[in-house]
Every structure is written in C-alpha cells, then in structure tokens.
Amino acid sequence: MTTSRDESRAIFDRAIDHTRGLSPATFDQWFGGVQFDDLTDGVLSLRAQNEFVLEWVKTNFLPTITDKIRELTGWSVQVAWTIDQHLEAPIANVPQMPPVRPRSLVVRPSTTPPTPPPPAPPSGPLAAEPRAPVAVPAPARRPALPDDLNPKHTFATFVVGPSNQLAHAAAIAAAGGGGRRYNPLFICGGTGLGKTHLVHAIAHRVLDERPGARIIYVSAERFTNDFITAIQHHRMDDFRAKYRVHCDLLLVDDIQFLAGREQTQEEFFHTFNALHGLDRQIVVTSDKYPQNLERMEERLVSRFSWGLVADIQAPELETRVAIVRNKAALEGIILPDDVALYLAQVIRSNVRELEGTLIRLAAKSSLTGRPVDLAFARAEITAAAPRAQIMSVEDIQRAVCHHFHLRSIDLTSKDRHKSIAFARHVAMYLCKQRLKVSFPEIGRAFGNRDHTTVMSAVRKIEAQRDTDPQVRAHLEALERKLAGDS
C-alpha cells in the first residue's frame, strides 16, 4: 500500500490524537521533544532530542501509537529513531509547553480580559456617517471557584503513570468524561500522592462542562464542624438541605478523620444514602482502604465499597521524572534533564515532597544567582535532607550483604539457595518499607525480577516478622544499621 506524505501524516496524527487522549499532560511534557519525519510502508521515522526522551517515549507511548497505526493501515509497524539535539519544534497537534522563565519574578495573568483598542476612524465619504453600536454578547463565565479548590489542580496538570492510572481514569469518568461511572468513587493512597489533586480536578471538569452544577468539596473535619455548628444553632434542616438536596457532586477528603465520631458518621451515612439514591456522584478520599478504616461503622465501610476503590501507589521513576518536569514547566523553572532525573531518584515516595524540593531549589537559585544544575541540586539536597531521605536501594543491598556475609551480585543473581533467597527477600522488604518505591522498581533493582515476585517476598517477610523471632532479630539489626548510616 503506497501513500502520499500527506496521507501518512494524517494517519500518524490520528494515532497521536488517540494516544494523547489517554494522558494529555504527560504526553505533552514528553512529546515536545519528538518530531515526525516519515511513515512509508510501515516504517515510522521519528526524531528525538536525546536518548532520555527516546527511551521514555519508546516505553510509555510507542506501543499505543504503533497499535493505532496498525489498526488504521494493517501494516506491521517498525520504528526508526534519529537523535537530533537541536530539535525544538514539537510535533503537530500537540501544544508546546509554556516558555520557561526565571522564578525571581512570577507574573500572574489577570482574570479580566484586556480591553480591545478602539477601531481606527474610517476614511473617505462614509467617514461622517454615524455607526449604530454593535451589541457584543458577553462571554459565558464560569461561576467563581469554591475557596478550597486549587485552580492548578486540573486533569491537564496531573501526570499519569502506572501507579495512578486507575484512579485517574475513574476520576475522569466520575466527572462525566466518558467510561463507566462508579458511585461512590473511593480513592485511597498515602500522603502527597495526588488524591486531593484528582478530587479538585473532578470539580474543575464538572464546572467547565456544567457551570451551574452545585458542588460541595469538604474535608471530613469540615463536614464534622458544619454538623456540630448546625446542632448548636438549631439549623439541622439547613445543613441537610445543603448536603442532601442542593448538591449535585459531593467530594469529601480524608474520610478517615470521621473515625470514632459516631454522631457525625450517622449523619454522613444518611447523607450518603440520600445522594446515592438520587444518583448524585460521591467521591471520597482516604489514606487507607475502606476495610482498614478504624472505628468506622461497618455500614459506612460497606457503602464505600459499593462503587470502585481505586488506590494510588508511590510513583515509579519515570512518572516521578515526568512530575518534576511538569512542575518545572508550570512554575517557569529552567530544569536540565539530569537534575530532573536526580530529584526523581532521591525523592521516591511523596509527590508533594518532590515538587516542594524543586520549588526550594528554584528559590535558593533565585537568591544566590546560581543555576539549578546537577552540582547545585546535589549540594542543596545533601545539606538540607536527612540521610534517610536520600538512601538508595543500593545502600540497603550493601547493608544486607554485609549483614549476611554475601556478595552484592548474589542479591541480583538467579541463585535460589535458601540463605541467598532469604537475604534477597529481606532486602526487598526493607526497600519497600524504608524507601516506599514501587514493586516493579524494586524488581528491576534485583536482577529484573517480576513485580509479583517482589510482592510475594515482601508479604512473606511481613508474616515471618510477626511469627519468627530469628527473622525479627535480623530485621531489627539491619534497621539499626540503616538508622546509624542515615
């Protein structure tokens, strides 16, 4: 099948549109450094800025793109890459990332549209004739955002990776963006992993599409305080009308803080039932799975599981790199690729901490006049952070090898000798507990083992720690060693 260049480009653009729709923010961030060259007889020629961009795009987006091209053409697609360090233009149909500027001055855009200049007076014989005023319809304006919603927390600024893909897709569906909608949607995960970001993004998307929607976003603490205030001032009818009648979307953050508050739980139970019966969307976040919520009524726990429970894990290395690059672009920070990679390697478990570290580096850079390069980042993070925060998988592997008198290669080898396998399992367990890295990332560090192998090892050591005094003694000794090195 022979196609013209225009036809080939059209096929490629359709594949790109399809792929970008799955994760716009991450796609825009990385594909800004990729350019289409040609698509002829199943050979797709692409140009990348550097090897780093090439590998990330190849791993995360290329399978979807080639599958779509194969679906459109029936070709068996092969990809030919070229490295072009001078590449600047992003590929077609992908908006370019905002220009980068120093952080010494942050200019916030005005929310008032600029007044257009008056039209130039006409010339010629019609100049003296008066013109009837032209009525210009006012642009439709979205209602003011609730005070507690962060305007930066949208789906466009949320970086999607394997660790949060399910929660992201479910959040889009909850906002009416397509796909099966689950009610309630229960999003759980550790601190600083993006639960609140997704909840805010749902509210923004709903307000964009339905400006008149009645949205309530509260923390569990705020819901409790509203309930107590209503009781004190004899305004329970107003409270119930607000939460049960005049509400199209209820978003509740940190539901775990209702623990032990029996009256508040009773009221929330009836609020939940009223909204669910009206098919009003309910989204709840927590740092624990529903079944692990302590001092929570069983009937509430049961209802939290009615829809979908979507968890967010600590992001993988590639996702962390994308997050820090995305944050740098949004804040106007010049961030070299090697610094982005370094930050992602040393800060593993918390997105909020990762972004906060970037902002601190930028602030220090602005004050001292030094560029945010790798040497600067290393010096500042080493000086400011405890050693425990920048401990690596390699540090734990070395400590385990020293404790069990093994060679470092033993932990990554295929050797299944009982003593080596036990030490390997202990090292995997400690990596998960102390570094909060993902199972696939640990697997790669231990000889490219499958993530299910790592999960099994961690569960095994967790069980043995509770039942086997010898295992517990090994772990306590290693933890003292690691704490002393911290």
UniProtKB/TrEMBL annotation:
Residues 94-130 are annotated as: Disordered. Residues 181-311 form the AAA+ ATPase domain. Keywords: ATP-binding, Cytoplasm, DNA replication, DNA-binding, Lipid-binding, Nucleotide-binding. Residues 392-461 form the Chromosomal replication initiator DnaA C-terminal domain. Coiled coil: none annotated. One of its GO terms (molecular function) is DNA replication origin binding. GO terms for biological process: DNA replication initiation; regulation of DNA replication. Residues 1-89 are annotated as: Domain I, interacts with DnaA modulators. Signal peptide: none annotated. It is found in: Cytoplasm. GO terms for cellular component: cytoplasm; plasma membrane. InterPro entries: AAA+_ATPase, Chromosome_initiator_DnaA, Chromosome_initiator_DnaA-like, Chromosome_initiator_DnaA_CS, DnaA_C, DnaA_dom, DnaA_N_dom, DnaA_N_sf. Plays an essential role in the initiation and regulation of chromosomal replication. ATP-DnaA binds to the origin of replication (oriC) to initiate formation of the DNA replication initiation complex once per cell cycle. Binds the DnaA box (a 9 base pair repeat at the origin) and separates the double-stranded (ds)DNA. Forms a right-handed helical filament on oriC DNA; dsDNA binds to the exterior of the filament while single-stranded (ss)DNA is stabiized in the filament's interior. This is Chromosomal replication initiator protein DnaA. It comes from Polyangium spumosum. The gene is dnaA.
